[in-house]
């Protein structure tokens, strides 16, 4: 399977499962930096290989075989992210950038060895679950985005979803990281903004941030 195909299938999978995203051809094209026509062409070819379901004007959907392939690539990517963060202390942006290159050059054998070396981690440094060798992946149903949080309630950050360097730089400067505790001061629903208090500091976040920060309520 080519690198381009693996990246395409992985992107469709990520857009299918993550809240606030959609897997329409136009969205996938924008994310991958290719034309809508190119996405349609790739989708039709993958549909013939029973990796994807393509219907004109509808969101792209992976078949079971397509999901299996996507999860295998994602497993390698997140294992490399965990390795690079633990061994070399690279930033969240740096580990993603390097893992994007390494995931395509990694055999299943090497992925298993990396997992064993890391004591078979369940989550990567972004808080994303690492698929098992059998292609199984589990999500905590109690995790929600900041967009859905309640005013006056305290939460713990469990996941940072995104690829943007500026997002991670902002998070680093403001101590927004896995395990950080915050309180929701105000939800500005009309303007889609959320005011949070974190380590005694108040921050006003727009939807671009709140849909990428996952939390769990502190009971």
Strand content: 15-25%
Strand order of the largest sheet: 3-8-4-5-6-7
- State the total count of DSSP E strands: 8
Q: Can you count the helices?
A: 8
**What structural category arises from helix and sheet content?**
alpha+beta
What is the residue-averaged pLDDT?
93
Q: Secondary-structure element order, as H and E?
A: HHHEEHHHEEHEEEHE
Which sheet architecture does the biggest sheet show? 6 strands, antiparallel
**Poorly predicted regions:** none
What is the CA-CA span between the terminal residues?
46 Å
Q: What does the radius of gyration come to?
A: 18 Å
Write down the overall geometry.
globular
State the helical fraction: 40-55%
Outline the structure in words.
It is globular and about 55 Å long. The protein has helices spanning 3-17, 25-32, 36-48, 64-88, 92-102, 108-117, 165-173, 207-210; strands at residues 52-53, 61-62, 144-145, 154-160, 181-188, 193-198, 201-206, 213-217. It contains eight helices and eight strands, in the order αααββαααββαβββαβ. Helices cover 43% and strands 17% of the residues. A hairpin with a 4-residue loop joins strand 5 (181-188) and strand 6. By secondary structure, the chain is α+β, with helices and mostly antiparallel strands.
Provide a short characterization of the protein structure.
This protein is of the alpha+beta class and 219 residues long. The protein is built from eight helices and eight strands, in the order αααββαααββαβββαβ.
């Amino acid at each position: 399977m080519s690198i381009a195909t693996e990246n395409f299938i992985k992107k469709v999978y990520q857009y299918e499962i993550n809240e606030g995203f959609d897997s329409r051809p136009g969205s996938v094209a924008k994310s991958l930096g290719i034309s809508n026509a190119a996405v349609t062409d790739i989708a039709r070819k993958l549909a013939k290989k029973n990796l994807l379901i393509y219907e004109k004007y509808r969101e792209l959907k992976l078949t079971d075989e397509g999901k299996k392939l996507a999860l295998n690539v994602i497993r390698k990517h997140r294992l490399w992210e965990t390795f690079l963060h633990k061994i070399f202390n690279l930033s969240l942006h740096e580990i993603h950038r390097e893992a994007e290159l390494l995931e395509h050059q990694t055999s299943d054998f090497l992925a298993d060895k990396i997992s064993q070396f890391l004591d078979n981690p369940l989550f990567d440094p972004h808080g994303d679950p690492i698929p098992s060798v059998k292609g199984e992946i589990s999500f905590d149903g109690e995790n929600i985005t900041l967009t859905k949080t309640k005013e006056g309630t305290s939460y713990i950050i469990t996941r940072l979803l995104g690829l943007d360097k500026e997002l991670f730089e902002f998070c680093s400067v403001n101590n927004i990281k896995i395990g950080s505790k915050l309180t929701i001061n105000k939800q500005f629903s009309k303007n889609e903004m959320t005011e949070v208090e974190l380590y005694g500091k108040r921050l006003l976040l727009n939807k671009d941030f709140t849909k990428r920060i996952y939390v769990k309520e502190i009971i």
